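Dear support,

We are seeing what looks like truncated structure output for some complexes. This example has two components. We would appreciate it if you could run it in full and send us the complete token output so we can diff it against ours.
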Amino acid sequence: MLVRYRGGEGMVAWAFHRISGVAIWAFVVLHVVDIFLVGAAPDAYDTLLVIYATPIGIVLEWLLGAAVLYHALNGLRIIVIDFWPALSRYHRQMWYLNWAIFAAVGLPVTWVIFGQFARSMGWWPR
Amino acid sequence: MTGRYSRSGRVKPHSGGFELTVWYLMRLSGIALFVLVLTHYLIMHVLYDPAEQDSLWVTVRWSSTFWRAFDWTMLMLVLFHAFMGMRTIVSDYTKGGARTLILSGLYLVALGLFVIGTLVVMTLPVSRVVPGA
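Here is the complete output from our reference environment:
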């Protein structure tokens, strides 16, 4: 198990923070360019949206949301620990709290995103 | 670092000056982005269906000065946060000439995104289409 490694939860939290951060950075680069196309070449933007709307695109959109939510929650945890070092005793509990919030927010969002997709494919009635 | 201290963020620089300022600004921009980016994702991917958002949709959305300002503020903060974060990561894994080269490339990309992002926010014509018509 990943958490059995001697780094424990703190190390996994750190690794996930980096991985999600790099993934979000990559999307930001793409996203600024695609929005630039709205002004420079609207047809190219609309063509790109067709790719975003493919099943792979939807899964990536969903993963982006997961990466953003994890990075946001864990980022707050980092800030809490940095500014109230005494709370670092509870860094593990805060990390599990992050995952509880992640699931509580993520599950309904997952339902909506894949629901929208199913409707756009005509699998579900609108 | 002492005892059972464990964290996933960058250790607060003791040197002061520029590095300490960046350290604080990463946290400050992080808090702002927590609100702005999660709101942005919620609106664009949950409240509205991305399948309906073509270039016209974006143009109509940007008839509102509020959303242009919101998006540009988010863009500035995200460029700072994302590229300073990448700078930390690149600095952790590279040294010497390779580091200088990769960081220079990174800053160039950041500058390019700043220019094209600001350009489109400032210059996209206001839509003459009435929403919903």
